[in-house]
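Illustration: Meiotically up-regulated gene 113.
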Amino acid sequence: MAKGFTDDDDALLAELGVEVEVKKQLSRTPREERIIAGFEEILRFADEHGRPPQHGEDRDIFERLYAVRLDRIRDLQECRDLLAPLDEQGLLANTPAPSASDSDDLDDDALLAELGVEVAKSPLTELKHVRSTAEKKAADEVANREKCEDFATFKPLFEQVQKELDSGLRETRPFEMKAEIEKGRFFIVSGQKAYVADKGETITNEQGRTDARLRVIFDNGTESNMLMRSLQRALNKDDAGRRITDPSAGPLFSDQTLDGDEASGIIYVLRSKSDHPLVAENRDLVHKIGVTDMSVEKRIAGAHLQPTFLMANVEVVATYELYNINRTKLENLIHRIFEPARLEIEIMDRFGRPVIPREWFLVPIFAIKDAVERIKDGTISGYVYDPKQARLVSVS
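Result:
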């Protein structure tokens, strides 16, 4: 009797001359049912993506699982025979010679093990904390660190970077490409600041991709000799991974206006005519460095009445016009460079209240000019001011 029909239905159909076919219900073993279910998942993937699942460490874990499963199915003649009626997309066309895996069961846990994946106790569709071999390797390389014996050399760099982040001279932005990984760059990975202290010779790996060995210093006093692509993978996999921008005031400024440029302000360097003993003894070294969006003449008008000008008249030593630039960031950048030489002086304002001006520095004018030129050519991030040598020195 056909499924869904009663004895009366069969009798009526017989009177109409319709032959009733009684189909035998096929009995499947649990293993065959599981193979069919697994192949149907592969079919759904191929239907959704328009292609068979593919191997590759950059692929989704489930796609990689399906790809391995499909290879195993193709390897087994019994599986091909079982699934041939379902294979409308021709996924079984590639049928390599049977291998030693013929006797293996198509168990998802076993397939995942072949992929180097740790399997959680939950069902496959609810896998949690599963990492591919490449991800584990990248994480291991980040975690495999040694004590940085010369960390004292790098500690001031991390402290300076934090100050620049706090002041807005630097920013954190999402990591985008390995081209950003260069010597002297800072990143945030696994919650720690990382500094690329050295980058070795570029090589080509087995996959034909370029790579290089790095010396990476971390702000907790450790270091790692890791590959550039390992750092790249760690940054890409870390939702909080970031690159730290170089200190910049914005677009470069020039001495000439180009079409479409708009004047943004002026850097001014002043020398005080104050009779304060500290200033009088270092007249040629004490300079005020500031940025204004008005004329310098207007800015210094009434200087003798303002504590910021040491309650004294001033002499204009140098000026530099700015175009299309963030004045505040530029001023912060210049003050950061000369922070080691900031003049500590207290002045009484006209009401007798003590004031400590913050824009005066004990630096020679040639050092200021050097800093301005390095800001122009974009190399300033590699220099700091050394009061002992009275000049800019390379941080490396």
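Reading the tokens back as a structure: The CA atoms of residues 300 and 314 lie 7 Å apart.
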